[in-house]
From TrEMBL, chains A, B:
DNA-binding region per UniProt: 42-61
Organism taxonomic ancestry: Bacteria, Bacillati, Actinomycetota, Actinomycetes, Mycobacteriales
PROSITE patterns: HTH_TETR_2 (PS50977)
Protein known as: TetR family transcriptional regulator
GO MF term list: DNA-binding transcription factor activity; transcription cis-regulatory region binding
Organism: Nocardia camponoti
Comp. bias (Basic and acidic residues): 9-20
Top-level division of the source organism's lineage: Bacteria
Record keyword Lipoprotein present: no
SUPFAM superfamilies: Homeodomain-like
Amino acid sequence: MSNLGPGRPRLEQRSRRAETPRAEILDAAGELFTTKGYANTSTRAVADAVGIRQASLYHHFSSKDDILDALLAETIAGPVEFAQRLADETVAAAVRLYALALFDLGQLRTARWNLGALYLLPELRTERFEAFRRRRDELREHYERLAGESLSAASLSDEARVLPFRMVETMIGIRSDAGTAPADLDQVIADGIARVVGEAGDLTALRAEATALLARLT
Amino acid sequence: MSNLGPGRPRLEQRSRRAETPRAEILDAAGELFTTKGYANTSTRAVADAVGIRQASLYHHFSSKDDILDALLAETIAGPVEFAQRLADETVAAAVRLYALALFDLGQLRTARWNLGALYLLPELRTERFEAFRRRRDELREHYERLAGESLSAASLSDEARVLPFRMVETMIGIRSDAGTAPADLDQVIADGIARVVGEAGDLTALRAEATALLARLT
């Protein structure tokens, strides 16, 4: 707070609960980008919300795009890493797919800000965000591979392999519309994914195996 | 073009193919909002893209929000009306749900601009767009009712009733990521919805009934 000059009111009074200045900036930006909009938010507004000078913000991020890129990267890093860990497992693809969905859904539902709502920004289609797009494609490919294997094991054509990744991301729209999403939605969506890849019967065993796998790998 | 003053270049050279000035404004706004972003687009930029004066634009719309509201209303009006027509039909709920999904998916896929990408704008959570949100809720409830009936007919619990509406909207993200979406995606998503509401076997008959119903009602 000692950096807070006169005429520069702190917009957010409550603590940001973050451990480093960088994390505080990301938290403030996450709030402003998702509640006011990306284009409507200046780096000055982010600095004000943290209670630091704009010059201090530029010590951590050289532009607003850099802040957005860091926020977006955070939304993908966890599930990509988890998907890579799943690749070494030998349990059925449908179990691995269910576990990946649960992991990803939990993160999308409980993240402090609904950052996935930024995925549709036209800004993300520019060169600046190509690395992010590639990383998100990588996650999408993990889903499609697991979904394709699950469909094949169920003797179904693999057209539906594109759906599970998209179904997980429906959490973003539900959270955006309702302001929040109930914890049991994770299982509802993961069950839906299981149906789509050909699990027609009782899902109790699949859920239990996937939950155990998730617990073991996290 | 006679309204085009000096120093006001027409940004878009090609014809907007619209029949009325109002439709031309909506088309230009749809393009700019989805490619440059809503906050990044001024009514002046929309007027320039149409090749009219800003004052002429205000003859049709009193604000940028009014243009957005009109665009959003267009995305919902068709499927809501179709869902109302379906309510009078006596065929199985799963067939009506499949037909509604096909209708809605076709529109989302082929609309000139991917306007659904605007649904996550923070601006839409303001009072100004309450009527739109209510209208979209109405469409969501049509989906949930048909999905609930389908699940009940399949002797399944109705938790998954929230998924079909969201699965249809995955067309928006797919179009946004890839720039376009293949026509056969309509059936892939509608099939996925059928699986989620408990259609476990061959879907050929369901597809045929739903396609016939769609053709009869449109």
